[in-house]
């Protein structure tokens, strides 16, 4: 599934239940260097620039590995990256991880 449209350096964000994103499950699943996610607040306008927050599989994996290690979880970084990618729907992945960490601390 692909939400939004990415053509070269032009992006059109698509609607989710909570906001707007570019999200490409195929790019994530291939685990390549393709852009798989751009959050709602990650881009100004519709042109990707050096200031645009773009995420690739490797970015999700790095964030997930750090989260798993920091919280002493038994999940593999790959499983956590998959879960993180599936759950982001408007926000930066690090923001969602921060929310998850708050809930872990409350338990």
Which whole number gives the mean pLDDT? 95
Order of helices and strands: EEEEEHEHHH
What fraction strand?
15-25%
Low-confidence spans: none
Number of strands: 6
Biggest sheet features: 4 strands, antiparallel
Query: Number of helix segments?
Result: 4
What's the Cα radius of gyration? Answer: 14 Å
Q: What gap, in angstroms, lies between the N and C termini?
A: 34 Å
Shape: globular
Class computed from helices, strands and strand pairing: alpha+beta
Share of helical residues: 40-55%
Instruction: Count the domains.
Output: 1
Keywords:
alpha+beta; 6 strands; single chain; two-stranded antiparallel sheet; 4-stranded antiparallel sheet; 107 residues; globular
What's the SSE blueprint?
Elements: E1 2-3, E2 5-7, E3 10-12, E4 14-15, E5 20-24, H1 25-30, E6 37-38, H2 57-71, H3 77-87, H4 93-106
Antiparallel strand pairs: 1-5, 2-3, 4-5, 5-6
């Amino acid at each position: 599934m692909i939400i939004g449209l990415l053509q070269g350096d032009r992006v059109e964000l698509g609607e989710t239940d909570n906001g707007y994103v570019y999200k490409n499950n195929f790019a994530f699943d291939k685990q390549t260097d393709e852009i798989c996610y751009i959050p709602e607040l990650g881009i100004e306008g519709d042109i990707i620039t050096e200031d645009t927050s773009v995420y690739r599989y490797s970015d999700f994996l790095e964030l997930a590995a750090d989260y798993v290690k920091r919280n002493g979880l038994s999940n593999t970084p790959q499983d956590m990256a998959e879960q993180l990618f599936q759950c982001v729907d408007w926000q930066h992945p690090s923001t969602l991880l921060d929310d998850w960490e708050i809930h872990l601390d409350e338990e």
